[in-house]
Amino acid sequence: MNIVKTILFECLSQETWVVNWSLVTSNFPQVDFNVAFKTPTTIGSYFPFKDKVKEVEEQSLVVYKLQFNSCEAIYIGKTERILGHRIKEHKTSNSSACFQDMKNSVGHKIHYDGIEIIDRADNNMKLQVKELLHILKQKPTLNKQLNAQSNYDIKTIIVKAYQQFREGK
Predict the structure, then answer these.
(1) Which CATH class is domain 59-165?
(2) Cα–Cα distances in angstroms (integers) from residue 162 to residues 63, 89, 113, in the given order
(3) Over the stretch 19-28, which tens digit does the pLDDT of each residue have?
(4) Distance between alpha carbon 22 and the CA centroid of its chain, in Å?
């Protein structure tokens, strides 16, 4: 009985409501119908864009590159949050050891004004993949991922990015 109810409801919900409801209920008296209405469009569908943020430090869901003023050392990172908040964390001592050693050595200053956004994504999984690909391509000296990341881990992250390979799908 639940199958009939589900199939009938799905068929009816995809059609326009030209069906006489009393006719449906009289033909299926044993079925207890629960009617749910769903609008075909939402207000959000009329606004498929986000406000354009011009300031680099106000953007989110980005892969970014930091460079040092005095040498060729670069760091590639990603953040889902507002980039300015992540940069503040880099300025504190909570950053990675390799990053801190370079930052604290004499004559090495990070060029915080020259932050470059090198990629964007619409979710964290895509962001991880893009960050990894940029790290593999540019081979920055300050990224731990380059040395610690095994081939297996890289393939795992890339495979997880494709929805058809995720568990339970």
Answers:
(1) alpha beta
(2) 19, 31, 35
(3) 566 777 788 7
(4) 47
